[in-house]
Amino acid sequence: MHVFNPLALVSSLLLASSSSSLVAAAPPSATWAERATSTPGLPSTDPFYKYSGNLTSQANGAILNSRAVTPVATNAAKAYQLLYKTTDAIGTPDATVVTILVPKTPKAGAPKIVGLQLPEDSVSIDCAPSAALANGTNSPAAQSLATTSQGLEGSLQNGYYVVIPDHEGSKAQAFVGPTEGRATLDGLLAATAFPTAIPGVDRSTPIAIGGYSGGAHATAWAAQLYSTGTASQLNIRGQVIGGTPVNLTSTLLYLNKGSYLGFAIVGVAGEVLAYPDIRDFITPNLYPNGTALFKDIQDNKCLLNVAFNANYARKDLFSYFKLADPLSYPVPQKRLAENLLGGDGSKLSIGTIMYHGEADDVIPYQDAVKYAKSQCSKGAMVHFYSDPGAKHIQEEGSRGASFVQWLDDVLSGKADFSCNL
């Protein structure tokens, strides 16, 4: 008897796409040298992830530690990891890690960077991309990485340096836009100050940023925050985002009682980890089974174990709460409003390519369309690709080669950012 295995299905779809996509003045930190370190481990136990100094006195993007690691990526010659300073959604200093993958054959001329945000989609710190990208860590996110890393191998083969942050920060604040956006930008600040990994790099080095699903969420927030603060020194030429979560409220309601409820649970847990007022609101208003649910979701549940966990699927998330309509209260309304992409009324300062399956069963398609139209109405440049009939996982796989090509187009000055909706 044949038993349907969703993990195998995802692997076959996305790995097939990944294979096809293959064809497709120095800052102070510049004096850092490569440091010999012990074998990397998981974020929960590896001392490299901890910083004992005064974070407040450090600038965002400051390099706090560095090491060489052995990459798992086939097309990477070497890899380096940097511990760097960032800040979370409420401005608390944090230290997180960015991984720099060095292509086997760098493109001729000055270096160019693909800033790739992977869909971590987890509130377990050991699911951080950095652990899965380094050989020998036994990362619980290794299988997730193998099936959701569109853009990684193809961009390396195209000769680009690939920079991947742990964009949820050290506390795994999943789907918290300000945390993810700042961590992404600060990771790029650190990478552009580390010529040991990227010879000739500086703040003028061209960068294309991109991601799908949870990775698109981090990317889009980085784009929104790009023109503010120190990150405006970076030379980001454009972004490519697919299956983009725009509105956390509508996404949560869309996921509720469905097959992929696990993502909604992660989203709520991420807000709890980011905002003390959300934690203080939610904690006393959970039934015991709700407390157990949110504890379980933090127990090494990486992306695939979130997406395809029978214990989460088709449940009513609100049934775990003592309140009939927890989203109607001022505290969650305030924080959800702060996490609405484009909710501050700002206009994107970089060109954008968006793509989304019209039958997306995880992230609402219409939210993405509305966002693109809103940005274009403000004078931003957003080109939107709609794919009829495509669901969320299918879209990621079928557009894998396009994603690599679009990132290449951004860095070669050929990208079409014209508004078309």
Structural features, described:
The chain contains 15 helices and 9 strands. It is an alpha/beta fold. It has a single domain, classed as Alpha/Beta hydrolase fold, catalytic domain (Rossmann fold, 3-Layer(aba) Sandwich), CATH 3.40.50. A 9-stranded mixed sheet has the order 1-2-3-5-4-6-7-8-9, with helices on both faces. Helix 6 (214-225) links the parallel strand 6 (206-212) and strand 7. Helix 1 packs parallel to helix 14 (392-398). The termini are far apart.
Task: Note the main attributes of this structure.
9 strands; Rossmann fold; signal; hydrolase; secreted; 15 helices; 9-stranded mixed β-sheet; alpha/beta; 34% helix; 421 residues
Order of helices and strands: HEEEEHHHEHEHEHHHHHHEHEHH
Q: Which strand order does the major sheet show?
A: 1-2-3-5-4-6-7-8-9
CATH class: Alpha Beta
- CATH architecture classification name: 3-Layer(aba) Sandwich
How would the blueprint of this fold be written?
Blueprint: H1 6-20, E1 63-69, E2 76-87, E3 93-103, E4 113-117, H2 129-133, H3 142-147, H4 152-157, E5 161-165, H5 177-191, E6 206-212, H6 214-225, E7 235-242, H7 248-255, H8 261-274, H9 276-282, H10 288-297, H11 303-307, H12 330-338, E8 351-357, H13 365-377, E9 382-387, H14 392-398, H15 400-412
Parallel strand pairs: 4-5, 4-6, 6-7, 7-8, 8-9
Antiparallel strand pairs: 1-2, 2-3, 3-5
Helix pairs in contact: 1-14, 5-6, 7-8, 8-9
GO cellular component, one term: extracellular region
Subcellular location: Secreted
Enzyme class: hydrolase
